[in-house]
Amino acid sequence: MPIWKVDGRRYLDSGTIIVTGDAAIEIRVEFGGKPHEVALKFRTTDSRETSVKFGSPKPDRTVVHFVNVPEHPYASGGAHIGKIGDRELILAFYVRPLPITPDGTPRFLAYTLYAYALEPL
Fold this sequence. Notes:
Order of helices and strands: EEEEEEEEE
Number of strands: 9
């Protein structure tokens, strides 16, 4: 992993993926010598409300729900999604729809995970 710091934030992982319909992406990173899991879950509901919700069912796992991601590009420069060790866990992402297919609406997701502390790393 050649990248280790971006803008003073500790770089953990980044990637791109195409998802269709309701999907879950499981990511495993290491921080402070300990593994941490991050699940990125796409869900659709009967509501039209769009949101990004997160929670930590265990200290070493964070789950992020992309609920009703809209039919236009959607991004965040850095959403605080919980803790990783004694640091803030930050998710930067960009989601955009691809052309509709019979299987559902494919989405392109690019993400980066960071660890952030108030004091310099």
